[in-house]
């Protein structure tokens, strides 16, 4: 065990503080709080502790995971973590001092470049906490641009994203957050959307795919939104963008995403990677940081923080956000992942997601009592209507080593028998068959 201060060091510091002991130094703290009796087991050696942890880990029951709902299990090439865990990255210096952190700034710049290419957007920030906060920041940016106070969101938006939006907006005077219902096909109810859209609407959040995995008619939605003088915020799955329309192709003003699928493990739900992009016209409304290229004194290429719309850097009343941290290490994983796969590899991965999900949907539909609920095209997840409560299916399949999906009844009224099921490229045809066979035993 490493003890940083010797007894002589401690006595010297105590004497400088004018006390004779640590107990005297802490005398103002009530004694019952200072040294409480703790019922702890005896200390273990490193070898004993390692053995104990392995025994605890062995109790975990591995599940074949078919749960999506915002965090997705994808194959991550071993090179991703091998490179991002190098000391140059893990111990990299803060990007504020460009002369000491060129490597960090370059990786962030490359991340921004990859994301702009993938999303077909003009500019991307250096990343945010997660997809939900990136979405909320985009909505705030829209309200700053046009001064309107009505925000429209789809009912089929991720429920956690809805809660984050409500938290961000609740202290803004006069702001209205309105939900647009989904239709029988699982996509946006276009008639209800047309009725609600008006000259009071600041922006509409287009989730594409939505929480149910359904793909929307993005071109039609974009035309309606811009026809009303409002702005469009696209919330997308980044893996899908090599096989479905990019946010830029249908004129999104802002486009955001949870970047976890890009080379980052699920890790029990975090950390996430908030991706935020925009048209060039709205670049100065973006919160956080943007890294750019300049030339140093000798005319050599240098990377610098170009725009920083944070209250640490500019006057607070002019700051677009008080976000003080990005997700640079997760962003590094993402840029390594995208570079390793390249456009062709990413498209192959996306097509495998599409194929596996549709194969599983067909297998489930063949099980008596189960059916795919919606008819809209979907990407890598879909909703299954069950003959029993969805939570019952989750519990039963967990006993067979299968994570069946996400029970929707807790978030969507009237969908207690509905299960959100996901299949990515990590699932084999044998895995899909085993899932369908497990349903037959319920």
Characterise the protein shown here.
The protein has helices spanning 7-17, 22-25, 31-34, 46-57, 78-84, 87-90, 102-119, 131-146, 159-169, 190-196, 218-227, 328-365, 390-398, 429-440; strands spanning 64-65, 123-124, 150-154, 176-180, 201-208, 231-236, 254-258, 274-278, 289-295, 301-308, 371-372, 381-385, 402-403, 406-407, 418-422. With 442 residues, the chain is α/β, with parallel strands linked by helices. It has 2 domains: 64-74 and 343-440, Aspartate Aminotransferase, domain 1, CATH 3.90.1150.10; 78-338, Aspartate Aminotransferase, domain 2 (3-Layer(aba) Sandwich). The strands form 4 sheets. The chain has a 7-stranded mixed β-sheet, with helices on both faces. It has a 4-stranded antiparallel β-sheet with strand order 11-12-15-14, covered by helices on one side. Strand 9 and strand 10 form a beta hairpin. The longest helix has 38 residues, at 328-365. The protein is globular, with a radius of gyration of 26 Å. It starts with 6 loop residues before the first helix and ends with a helix.
């Amino acid at each position: 065990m490493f003890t940083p201060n010797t007894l002589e060091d401690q006595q010297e510091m105590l004497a400088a503080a004018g006390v004779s002991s640590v107990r005297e130094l802490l005398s103002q703290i009530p004694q019952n709080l200072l040294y409480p009796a703790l019922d702890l087991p005896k200390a273990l050696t490193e070898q004993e502790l390692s053995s104990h942890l392995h025994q605890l880990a062995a109790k975990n029951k591995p599940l074949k995971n078919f749960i999506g709902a915002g965090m997705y299990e994808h194959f991550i090439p071993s090179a991703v973590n091998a490179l991002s865990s190098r000391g140059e990255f893990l111990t990299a210096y803060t990007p504020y001092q460009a002369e000491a952190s060129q490597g960090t700034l370059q990786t962030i710049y490359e991340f921004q470049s990859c994301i702009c290419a993938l999303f077909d957007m003009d500019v991307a920030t250096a990343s945010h906490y997660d997809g939900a906060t990136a979405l909320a920041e985009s909505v705030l940016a829209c309200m700053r641009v046009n001064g309107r106070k009505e925000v429209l969101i789809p009912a089929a938006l991720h429920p956690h994203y809805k809660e984050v939006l409500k938290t961000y907006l609740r202290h803004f005077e006069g702001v209205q957050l309105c939900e647009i219902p989904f239709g029988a096909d699982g996509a946006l109810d276009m008639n209800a959307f047309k009725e609600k859209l008006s000259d009071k609407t600041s922006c509409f959040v287009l989730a594409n795919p939505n929480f149910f995995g359904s793909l929307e008619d993005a071109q039609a939605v974009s035309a309606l939104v811009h026809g009303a003088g409002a702005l469009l915020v696209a919330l997308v799955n980044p893996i899908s963008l090599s096989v479905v329309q990019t946010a830029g192709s249908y004129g999104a003003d802002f486009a955001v995403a949870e970047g976890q699928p890009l080379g980052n493990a699920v890790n029990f739900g975090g950390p996430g990677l908030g991706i935020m992009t925009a048209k060039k016209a709205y670049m100065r409304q973006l919160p956080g940081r943007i890294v750019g290229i300049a030339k140093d004194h000798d005319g050599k290429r240098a990377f610098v923080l170009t725009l920083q719309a944070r209250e640490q850097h500019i006057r607070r009343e002019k700051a677009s956000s008080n976000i003080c941290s990005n997700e640079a290490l997760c962003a590094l994983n993402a840029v390594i992942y995208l570079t390793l796969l390249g456009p062709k590899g990413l498209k192959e991965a996306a097509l495998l997601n599409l194929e596996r999900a549709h194969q599983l949907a067909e297998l489930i539909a063949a099980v008596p009592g189960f059916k795919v609920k919606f008819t809209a095209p979907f990407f890598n997840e879909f909703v299954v209507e069950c003959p029993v409560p969805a939570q019952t299916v989750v519990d039963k399949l967990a006993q067979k080593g299968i994570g069946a999906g996400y029970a929707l009844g807790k978030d969507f009224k009237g969908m207690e028998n509905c299960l959100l099921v996901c299949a990515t490229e990590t699932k084999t045809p044998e895995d899909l068959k085993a899932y369908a066979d497990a349903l037959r035993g319920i």
